[in-house]
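Exercise 3.2. Students should predict the tertiary structure of the chain below and write it as structure tokens, then compare their answer with the key that follows.

Predict this chain's 3D structure.
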Amino acid sequence: MYYKLNSIRYRFIQAQLYTILFTSLVMLVILTIIDVIFNPIWLSQLNIVLLSGTYFFLGSLIAVLIGFRSSGHLKSEIDDLSVMIMQLSRGNYRSRFNYETDGEIARIGTELNDLAKKLDDQVRYLQRLADEKAAFAESAHKMATIEERQRLARDLHDSVSQQLFALTMMSKAVLRTLEKNPEKARAQMVEVAESAMKAQTEMRALLLHLRPIHLSDQSLRDGISNLIAELKTKCAIEFNMKMDDIEHLPKFTEEHLFRIIQEGLSNILRHANATKVKILLLQEAQHIFVHLADNGKGFDWDLADQKQTSYGLKTMRERSEEIGGQFILRTKQGEGTYIDIRVPYQCQEEIK
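Answer key:
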């Protein structure tokens, strides 16, 4: 960069020397023509050469001196422009170019100053936007946490709390009838055991929502496998799984699919009374296919909007739509529930 800027001075001097050389040649030609036509006594060929050579020599010295001095100011201004550009490239947008005279350099300096001001304003705007985005994300996270807590509190009150209250009343009834009617007390104890099992299943389903939302460093397949392994130790459901290891899946899509399957398993534990669950996670030609099925009691979809299952199904559908997926649910009273989700996906090899 220094050589290119420094060569401006020498190009300026070179232009002056070209001018001297041209005028010297013109002088040589004119003197030669005068000698040929008029043949003056004082003008000989030697004198022509001496006059032209002397003019060229003295003119070259003057041209170098004047060119060097006159190009110094121009070089200084260009050096200042170079420093200004370097400051902008390093992110110092508050740097300004100072100029004293008018002209092309001053115009370029003015434009650079305007550019620096615009870049500085843009950086401040982006910083303010980033702060607002961070504050909004924090606020949204807090709102989502509060909403989730309220939902869990409502579910605990509507299900587990009522079941525990029923267990308390039934236990007291058993104590009252134990000595008078042992057979009736035995039948009541069976109901107590069933209610306790339902409350336990309900609590396990609610605990699924307390798991971390993020998969951390796990893949989607590993996260689902760990979730199923945990459920196998706590319930008697038989799980049939087939899952592909999908590479380069966007993190946002992974987390949504994990939460969808998590929500579906929660609904199965709470409402389906199923003994078998089938989970498929397959990478197909142009999409990812997720299949979640159970052999539970099913339900009437037309009446589902009035039931607790509708909230979980609505959440699953919304999450599917957020990642561009298609959500299909098939169910019938007494025949289980089947959920199919297709999410558009193009592998890296196809993109290349």
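Discussion points: The radius of gyration is 44 Å. The chain has a mean pLDDT of 79.
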